[in-house]
Amino acid sequence: MPALHHGGMNTPHTTSPVHMAALLALAFALAPAHAADTTAASQMQRWSDVSGKPVSAERGRVFFNSRHGGEWSCASCHGNPPTTSSRHASTGKTIAPLAPAFNPERFTDTAKVDKWFRRNCKDVLSRECTPVEKADVLAWLLQLDGKTPPQAAKDKP
User: Fold this and answer.
1) Does the CA dihedral 116-117-122-127 come out positive or negative?
2) Where does the secretion signal sit in this chain (predicted)?
């Protein structure tokens, strides 16, 4: 049977550095973006656009701190305000600050954002959050910058 690559059957196949660089570039270009593919502000806008409603940081603050008929609120695990590390209410695991100004990695990976909103909303609400609820919470979280007291900040997206 004839050889299918250059050099015959007994010649090892080698790849030139240029060819290898091209293959690596192609692999990175085709790899799905998992980290730092978005921003908290972009996530807020995405959910606001889907809901068709303007965001309200005050509604987001109230939503975040309310129990919604269950035993937990968002603040039960993330703290109030969510600007420092906290502990999960049942597992005790450390949770990094939720507010983007205090944790720049927050809300920068769309897949993780969707996963954690889905999981945490089901824990707190026994259902998924609506797009407007997500947008409102993000509007409030984006206000938490260390300069504005959390309770005094009103509807500044």
Assistant:
1) negative
2) 1-35
